[in-house]
Amino acid sequence: MKTIIFITGNQYKFQVAKKAVENLGINLVQKDLETPEIQSTELEKIAAFSAQWASNKLQKPVVLTDAGYYIEALNGFPGPFIKYANNWLTAHDFLKLMKDKKNRTVITKDCLAYCEPGKKPITFLTTAKGKISEKVGAKGTTSINEIFIPDGFDKVESEIPREEMVEFWNKNKDSWQRLAKFLKSKN
Predict the structure, then answer these.
(1) Catalytic one of 66, 100, 110, 174
(2) Which of 44, 35, 43, 39 has the alpha carbon at shortest distance from 5?
(3) In the chain, what are the domain boundaries?
(4) Who is most buried in 29, 38, 48, 177, counting CB within 10 A?
(5) Catalytic site includes residue 151
(6) Domain spanning 2-186 has what CATH number?
(7) 172 pLDDT exceeds 60?
(8) What gap in Å lies between CA 107 and CA 148, rounded to an integer?
């Protein structure tokens, strides 16, 4: 079994990842490590840079994920800057930006980046869909999850039981399987 350090302080992200690697021969160990985040509109570049930095710092194989929320009516805003948008904007602020917008589609992108010390990182990108609600839902952990309705649901993420959201984020997300296949091909 391959042990990899999963860089995150977010217990929810770690829970999703642990579920994803069940039966893949990967043992994830969580490490809360603040990584530098380059300024880029390309999610893959941001995740790759952070993974390479963490791997070289820890001198161990690492994996991390970075996400972006691309609201079609806002020309893809906030994209990979969702972390900052969540700090700056409330759910009500997001809804003000969406006033009179007919297209409420959101494409979420999740980039898994893997790196070994001294090597180039590799990335795997997956997407999911949803929409922006018409009103703010229950208090959540972020502004976006108070207004994001994942495909297949009729309520915002903050009102959906965590177990169901873990399943949603893992559904159609083959990044971990692709990572496992990559690791096996190296041996």
Answers:
(1) 66
(2) 35
(3) 2-186
(4) 48
(5) no
(6) 3.90.950.10
(7) no
(8) 10
